Amino acid sequence: MADESDDDLVSYRMRPQKPIDPTLMATTCAGIVVLLTGLGFLFGAIANTRVEHVSDYSQEVHEWEKYRPLLKDTEISMSFNLPETAHRPGGLVESQLMQTEEEDWAFHDTEEMNGVEQYQPLKHVTDLELPCLYSNCSMVALNAADSLQPREDWNDQVLPSWADAPRASFHFVTRGTGGKQSSFSTPAIPLIFDLPTVGQTPQPRMYCYGPGHGVFRRPGTCHHAQRLKDLCVVLEPDGDGGWKLRNAVVTQFFYNNSRRTGTFGCNPQTGYEAATYHRDPCWGPVPNRHICQDEGIAHKLRVTVRAWHDPYIKAAELTHGSMDFGLSGSTELITGSVLLTMGCLIVLVPNILRSRCAMRRLKKLTRKAASPQARSFGRTGPLRLIHEKTTTPATDRWARQMGKKQVVTMMLDGYPPILELQDFLATCEIVFLVIFCIEMCILLGAYGPCRYVRTPAMCFDGIIVTVSVVQVLTSPDGQGGPFTALRTFRLFRVPRAA
C-alpha cells in the first residue's frame, strides 16, 4: 500500500500541465475589468471638476439676479421683410415677443442637483408661421395630401444653395423703463436653402429617394430642403440703459465656416450659432409621410431672445450640452475604492484558493505515502451531514425554484417603476437575499472553498450574493448613489435559472 501511495505521489508530480480552468479565467478577467474601472474612478476623483463648475454656475446665478429685473421691464418687438420671389411678392412681418418663465430643458444631474442653485428663468418668445417660399408650393401641398407627383417632376425643383438662398434681416426694437429705446439688426439669414449630401452606396439613387427623402442628382448627390426653424439671440446692456446683441468670442465650433450666421446665439455647443435649420419632411418626391402629417406644410419659426448671464447658457457651456455636472469627487473616490477592493478580491481569492487546493492535495498524498494511518482522511461529523443534505434532488429543486421566483420579481421591477409594487418588491429582495446568503454559507461548509469557487453555478451564486449585500449596505433604503448600478449583477440569476 505504501508503494501505491508513492506511485500516486510520483504520478501527481509528473502529471501533464492541465489546461486553464475556464471558470477561473472568466472570474479573473471580470475581476481585472472591475479593478480597472475602480482605478478609472480614482483617477477621475483626482481630476474632478464638479466643484469648480458648480461654483462658476452659482456665480452666474447671482449675476442673473441683477440682469433679470432689467429684462423683465423690457418690451421687445421684431420685424423683417420677406424676400420677393418670382412666385410671390415680399412683405413685412411684425411681431411682439412675449415674456415667459417656462423652459424647454431640464438638468439631468447625476448627484440630484446637490449644491446646484435654482433660479427663475425668463426669456422673450414669439412663434411665427411664414408663407411657403418654394417655387413649387403646390407640389409640396399635394405631398401633404398624400398625392405624390412623379419623380421626374422634381428634377428641376432643387432649392438655391446657401450663397444664393433667400434671406431676411431681423430687426429688433427694445423699450425699457423710462421710455429708453434701442434697436439692432441681425445679418441677413437664409430662410430656406438646398443641403446637398453624398449619396449612400451601393445604391445612392435608391437611398436618396427612400430613407433620404430627397432629390437625386447625378453623379451621386442627394438634395434636401432646409428651412429656418429657430432663431435664438442673446442681448447684453449697451451701457446707456438699452440693449444690444452679444457677440461671443468663439475659438471652435461644429458648423461649417461658410454657413455661419453670427455668434450672437444661445447654444455654446454650436459656437453660439443663432439659426437652427430643419429638414422639411414634406418636400421631395418621396416625403416622410408620418412626420409630414404631424408637422404639416406650414413653415413655423420660433424667435427667442435671452439675456447674457442667463444660467441656461452657462450650464450648457460648463456641461458641454449634457446638463449634468457629473459625479462629485467624494462619490468617485468611494466608488473607485469599493470597485478596486472588489476587483482585487475577485482576482486574488480564486487564484489563491486554487493554489491552496493544489498544495493541499500534494500534502495529502505526501502524508499518505509517509503515514499509512492517515488514509482514512475524509468528511466527518457535521460536514458530512451537511454535504448529504445539500446534495439531495429535493434541495436542488428548492434552490432552483427560489432562483426562478427572484427572476420573476426582477421582471416586475422595471422602469418607470410601478409604485404599488415597490414595497412588495423591496420585501421580496430582502427575503431572497437572506435565503441565498444562508445557502451560500451552507454550500461553503459542505463543499469547501476550493470546490465552491471551481463550480461555475455556485461561483456565480457567490458573486451575485456578495454584490447584492454590498449594494444593500452601501445604498440604505434602496435610494440613489452609484452603488445602485450593482443591482445589474442580479441578472446573473437568469442564466443561473436556465
UniProtKB/TrEMBL annotation:
Its main location: membrane. Coiled coil: none annotated. Residues 407-496 form the Ion transport domain. It holds the Pfam family Ion_trans. The keyword rRNA-binding does not apply. GO terms for cellular component: voltage-gated sodium channel complex. It is a multi-pass membrane protein. The chain crosses the membrane at residues 23-46, 333-353, 424-447. Keywords: Membrane, Transmembrane, Transmembrane helix. It comes from the Eukaryota. This is Voltage-dependent T-type calcium channel subunit alpha-1G (Cav3.1c) (NBR13) (Voltage-gated calcium channel subunit alpha Cav3.1). It is found in: Membrane. SUPFAM superfamilies: Voltage-gated potassium channels (SSF81324). One of its GO terms (molecular function) is voltage-gated sodium channel activity. The keyword Transmembrane helix applies.
